[in-house]
Amino acid sequence: MTRVYFCWTNREPEFQHFLPGARLLVSPSLLTRAWNVQAWNVMPQCVMVDSGTFTQTKRKGVLDVRTCLQAQLRILEGWPTDRSAFLIHFDTPLPPSLPFDEYQARVKLNLEFAAAYITQFPRLANLVPVAVIHALDGETLAASYLELRDMGYRHFALGSLVALLYRSRNRLRSLLEICRELGLEDLHVLGIASPSVLKGLLGPWIGSFDSSAPVRQAICGTIFYSRPFERFVLRPTGRQALGNRSFGNREPLHTPRPCACPVCADDPIGLLCSDESEARQRRKIHNAFHLLEEVASWTI
User: Fold this and answer.
1) 114, 161, 211, 283: which could form a disulfide with 218 (CB 3.0–4.6 Å)?
2) Quick check: 90 pLDDT over 90?
């Protein structure tokens, strides 16, 4: 079954407390330098730590391979030795509009980063280095994958996809199909948060993806329901009801539907808490539950 990693910062609820087995993705760029996993009351089943470079404006000291790995290992201080943690190598995304020579130079640079990263990576059984394949064409993707595999990587993620999601989904489908042809298995897809989009691209070679959608949508007042997957604005405010681009494709819902999520099961109207800060946290948990339910319903 496809696995979901919830993008997490210390402003979010501990999803793993409410949803046993939840997996989290954390980033050095979105956590304080003093934070590590020992701050959690409950450890998640699995954690992925990205490089922190996608959020370019919040590097927080992550400037190169060495500082990236230092930040990741600092975050993982206290992580149980019997649970896996996946660490993404220091990398830099590819804007789709780069001239060809600059594009190839950026690809080469990412490969150099990956080579330096795995050389410095600690030899601990529960810490797993993940190579990110950054490529916008099939030939470059295949060549990058083979080179990364020769470096010793056995777990792979596909990056630089966000722009393709909005500009060229056919190109995105083509890249995923090439991953299948290369024999890639258990691939992690970075940056596609929408389950409805990913479902249409799904193949047996895709093992996992990460999503910030439960959090981002909850902050804006949107709630999910699964089987079928639907989104609603709960008791929309006047601004939301105007149909701006944040809410225009969502139907209003004035009363939550019955559901078995940890929030609604304990309190059917818990999503309508008068404290907006608390209501946001409850919506995040509710949305995370329904994202898991929706992904569990997918068949290949």
Assistant:
1) 283
2) yes
